[in-house]
Structures
1.
Amino acid sequence: MTATLTNPLRVGLRQERVISPQCLVIFGASGDLTHRKLIPALFDLFRQRRLPSEFAVLGCARRPWSDDEFRQKMEAALASKIADDPESWKTFSAGLFYEPVDLQKSDDLVRLGKRLEQIDRQRATRSNRTFYLSVSPAFYGSGCRALAGAGLLADPNRSRVVIEKPFGRDYASAQELNRVVKSCGQENQIFRIDHYLGKETVQNILVMRFANTIFEPIWNRNYIDNVQITAAETVGVEERAGYYETSGALRDMVQNHLTQMLALTAMETPGRYDPEAIRNEKAKVLQAARLADEAEPWNCCVRGQYGPGGNSSDPLAGYRQEPNVDPNSTTETYVAMKLFIDNWRWQGVPFYVRTGKRMPKRMSEVVLTFKEAPVHLFDSSGGGAPGANQLILRIQPNEGADFRFEVKAPGSGMRSRPVDMDFSYDESFGEPSDEGYVRLLADAMLGDPTLFTRSDEVEAAWRLYTPLVELIEQQPWQLPVYPYEASTWGPAASDSLLARDGLLWRRP
Amino acid sequence: MAPQLTLQAPLELPPQDVSDYLGRLWNGGEQDSTSSGAATFSLLVWQPSWIEQHLVRLGRLDGPITGLEREELLQAARQAVPTCGLPLSTSPLAPELAWQLGQLPGDQASEDLRGQHVDPAISLHQPRRLITLAPSLDGHQHLETLVAAYCPLPEDGPASSVCGDVVVMRGGMEALQRGLGMVNPLIPAELPCWVWWNGTLDEAPDLFEGITQAPRRLIIDTAIGTPARALDVLSQRAAAGQAISDLNWYRLSSWRENLAMVFDHPGRRDALAHVVQLDIDVQGHQPVQGLLMAAWIANRLGWSLESSNHCDGDGISASFRRPDGVAVQVRQMPVPVGDPSTHPGSIVGLRLVCRPEHRAPLCVILCGETGGCMRLEAGGMARMELVEQVVTSTIESAQREVSRTLRGGHDSTNPLLAACVPLASRLLPR
């Protein structure tokens, strides 16, 4: 097969809706997310003709940068993208501005208001504003209050707030943050972002399920034996030790990304493709989900922490040896658990969820394992019974889906062996998918909340893990952190969790 | 969805009073969105509806005249095609049908609600101002100006509080031409303005020039009218940097998508560099859609045009040169169809032949749902790797097509269209 070139007939075929004239205000503009994700995503949108000429970005942070300094820093960060299209950058960057702002200072907010009015006049952005809170989670509530206090959220049709994860630290704090945020604006102004929902493959779970008649009839307890949801990273904690020490894998990955994948996989069919219809179904399924053993969560959950690994030429530090990590830290870098969903569709079907850092592969996937054939007429070519069918939804990398089923192995006997029917986004579509932030930023600025989590969803997700969060905080010895060697698939206890049910984790 | 009428009966005002009246209507209240009107866009529509007007005048269609592309209108027009002595493959909205109907006697009168019947596909975008220029059959009729406030009431979901207004200017061509001066002050300068020229580009050229200048965003349909005029307008406006949308180009989406899909497969992508022949069949004698398709392919694959000529009557034959110097033959043929599409010149089939080195030739055939592709399937294709796809035709009303354009909200011409129009224009033998 030839190398994957872009299909020249595919280029430019997507013509999507242009965003209304507006100013995107990024708080925390000097941070990583702005130059690594947000500005590149906006530049992509500009090159796709999705930003109107009446558009501006106002970066805000405490650093005393000027507009030009901000533009230069963004230009340096996007050098490789800009090299492909310097003319576009010239036009796009003319709409980048910067204002030093401390959200806790009322004088700064008055100045911000004036600067926004000035930008409205300069760029004809018509007082439409999206405020992106890319700041420390500790400031989400006070940031919203400050914006509301300055009157910047007064018009629900013209102002929106995007809030990054994590939304709260537990059920109680999420409830409190929701209360604060809702006191500052209406629910339709609040966009709680989870960048996993911006991935094509995560959205494809909906399309696979609800645009095909072959899956939905078997998408239930009658045919599915178990579901495994995995998000594995090869990297360690990197420069995020300060945050990670207070969060751990459960808060960093499970409560948001993995729970969203769980919700999309398990939700009921919405009546129509409508933000509220989709979010209603997601909220309902999360409200029906529970840990397999809520009374004794240690029976259904395993925590782990990566230790040193690698080899002599490429050694990998253990978590406790990473910079800024407490040498006695008990923060989990791996967590695996078993869940049930108490409804007619999923009663009795175990959902196994795991995530970890320093795994052998970077991958995220949802694996639905179907029940075995009731009678085994044929031997497997590997000996024993034929394997169960599996549908594997690959979220990343190599985005796509696999369906594993049994066929006759060549030869005179009647033995079966499994084969894979494979769909790959890269191979089936002649151009690469957008980054998740491209989709989500565009949706937020268009006011489409379908791919953002609603307050009741967030609360249901936190409620689901409350027994674990409480156990970790109050009786951590009940849920010990097992060490595992870096670049392995987690602690042995995690395998035991499935072994008790006669199952194995999929080794992708 | 059923069309929606304005909530209040339109008020007939002297033309010179319209601007003041509308100013008072929106500036009299507070700053909320209801009293200040939707901050969206204005839409100016040239709405001659000649065929509908004639069919109603002849008693072949019940009134009122709405300007909407309704099923009864299409049915009556289809029935009129053979009685007017036109070929069966004539589209029901073809300008030649309007001309033929105009020769027939009849004086049935009916209410004219053009501009007052707002299609929900348009109203859901909440235009701030919808101005309709409605020329009447009587060229000497004086100018009537009607005004009404308008709040869209969606069939599902809560009513919107964002309102707009409709202005209808109705009269003979001369009166409309004279009244042109009052149109510009009616268009809010701070909002984008779209102009939908819902008729052939051959008519009322002065009026067309008067209302369609940049920065207004122009929507036309190159399927109607003289091909040379349509392509000239398209290429001149795109070259001048004006935002111009062509519904005829928009209708090509499924053909472009299906062709791209064939070559999404990595094993086939390489074959695109080895195309030697392209054949396109179009319905009837309107070549523009086929030329736009050929020009898009040629532009995307980097071919340069060497010559273009008429062949076999109304067919068009062109020679291109690929970037590697190999010649590509392009041929577009009109084919008769029994059940013509609403849109003249719709593509009914496409064949692309690729001859990659050291591999079997590849023949890709795309067929329209209704037309069939027997002509393209003939001719020794059996020895090639054959890929055939049926392209689903999604016939939508013009209002829905315009709605999609409005929804897109682009303030510049689609770059693919802008890139291929000059080539399509050169492909048309003159």
2.
Amino acid sequence: MKRKSLLLESRNITKSFGSFVANDDINFSIFKGEIHGLLGENGAGKSTFVKMVYGLLQPSMGDFYWNGKKITIQGPQEARDIGIGMVFQHFTLFPTLTVIENIQLALNENFNLQELRETIIKKSAEFGITVDPDIYIRDLSVGEQQRVEILRCLLQNPKLLIMDEPTSVLTPQESEQLFRVLKKLSKAGCSILFISHKLKEVKELTQRSTIIRRGRVIDTVASSSVSTEQLAKMMVGSEPHNVKSKIVVNSDDCLVRISGLNRSVDNPFATPLEDISLDVKAGQIVGVAGIAGNGQSELMEVLTGEWRSTETIDAFEVFGTDIRNYSPHKRRQLGIGFLPEERHGHSAVTDMKLTENTLLTHHNNPAIQKNSIVQNETLEKLTDEIVHKYDVRTPFHNPLASALSGGNLQKFVIGREIIKKPRVFFVAQPTWGVDIGATKFIRNALIELANDGCGIIVISQDLEELFELADNICVLFRGKLTESKPLEELNAEKIGMMMGGEDLLSRSQGE
Amino acid sequence: MFYLTPRKEIPFSFRIAIPAISIVLTIVFGFLIFSILGYDPGKALYHFFLSPLSRVDKIADLFVKACPLMIIGTGLVLCFRANIWNIGAEGQLIMGAVFAGGLALSFPNNQSILLLPFMAILGFLGGALWALIPAILKIKLRTNEILVTLMLTYVASLFIDWLVRGPWRSPTSFGFPLTEYYPEAGLISKIYFPGIGNISQLHWGVAVAIFVCIFCWFTMEKTIFGFQFKLIGDSPNALKFSGFNESNTTLVLFVISGGLAGLAGMIEVSANIGQLQPNISFGYGFTAIIVAFLARLNPVAVIISGLLIALIEVGGDSAQIALAIPKVVTGVFKGILLFLLLAGETLTKYEINLSHNQKSDLND
């Protein structure tokens, strides 16, 4: 057997922020051409570690070795120069530039545009990533943006590619495609550091995995030699608790009634919505499946009231009230809660403290705001209550939202909405980019809410999630919504086909 | 190459040492400049920094000078926090003065104590209306407020020029471009301290200015409107999600900052000049931009930064008069002072990282 040589090695890497030790004595190594999984719970220190590899943070102690030589990586530019590429969980593309312009910006050499376009098309064909180089980033779905990120890294011919939760936005088929790309890359000699909370994937894709818990390496194992259960146990330190069971509802109390919902778009890359109808009963969770970019964000804007129309929507009633013209503010007053997909800058403001983020959706509460003066004490109490009740782990009391890890911030914003006990709740991608512990927690919270009689719409690309949560599932494809069907009548394969438009096609052929 | 990266935590000693270093460097540079140009550096620096602080009445004059800067600056802080770049406060100041002046001149014999409050209201309205033009253009047509507010400043200054040379010129001004004097009831009186009397020019407008700064701070930090202002600046999408109306918030901010500039104009004329003339402001509207940033966009800190800028202005004048230093030289010195202050401020918040390029020994 050919002896493998080490590409990157970390020895005794420690990183502390004040008194908090985020990484404690991390010893880690990756071989040339290896796909290596990095597993860990929410806030375990995975992001801190890869940020040091990518030069975004400097270790407090310990050293990195690249090809056996000791190095210090001062910044991302230097990391890229030596051949480290990274695809972030939250993307770093400029929305107002096109795909090709974004890629051009990241390259060190001066490419002429025509040449670059050809290279992009060649690379994307080679690795099976289809992207139109001249589309503006703002017009791409999250899934498509990720492909651009990956492509951008590949053009720099990295020796080590770091992928932070890459599959959380992809359909099963898309994930398969990604894995093929990654395997091809690894064959070509590129090492891949794959961060994911989906244990099955890690087991399937990687050769070895390193498990981190509370800033320490628990173990590095050959991925094929352990079961997913064993991996999960190492991650959380105990048997992971399962999702609670959903009480099946037999209520006829229809809380949400949408029919004939149409939305045209002013921008050629957004998805128009066509004749959408959807009912939600009390205690029911309706799942909207579908691949990113099929109208999810457009639909969510209609649900939250950030986009409104009385002309193109035939009916949108909640509790029998016509809310077509209600602002988000008025909808909240009616007892509707909602949570859009994007945490950073939409459902939460990262540069503001948690108390201010609470104020974001609690400002019409008379205990919080008296005669437009904010009652800071009550606000702080409420924020603390959310933090405790929903197990939000903060580095210190009332930090900026940016100080929380993705999963903790998501627990916070979900908790912020649920604590109001909404009777109707609309939520998009509730566990996107969130680790396993927080995911279970959030799903349990949603199920509890439904068991108390709340009607919930969950828009999600994660089929596993919808199977755990939903009573009924429908599929959004090219702005059209299939009829919602009870879970018993469906399986993953059927839904997967509907996500690719099979159902709608066969239906229209039948007509 | 070097990079600025934000400091994770700012040691307390930095907060003391860096401003101290800025001040020492300013004095060093002052010594150099003044001695190279043949002026006595000791005397020049004395007139710049110590003379304006040497007597109570001179300190009072600093407050008078800072008064419009504080009022305008605190309004601009609110705007800038929301990423709205109203740089036309100068024009809004002029329009405020024109509106208030129009009222005062229409009632030349009025003795009512209500005249002044109404002038203040009209002053606010004048500035607010002038700021509404860029606000509406921004909201409806997405024009850039920086350009529109700036251009409207020129319109306003030509407008007052036309008024005082044309329709509003006093018949008794011997052909000078001046209006009639305001009636007594339209003037802001000086503060009378029992047992002491007046202290130089210190007038009630200064008290208003300090009140306005505190009020703006309260609005910013304690009210739901302040929260909206900050939200627009940080994240317009979150503002929408939160259910606030972005256009309304923008409009309110233009009205407040324009209105306060107008109020400053009204106070400046009623307290110090007593009639309208072509130049009623010495660039207060522009200087207030520096004041706002020097205060790190904190509405109360504007009181301090306003006084500081006033000190530099008054000190510059004093040095010009006492030592016959040309205006350009004091201008250069003021520039150095501001540069060092802001550089110190930046270095307190950020640290300099030199990049070590180790590329060559890594590619094997």
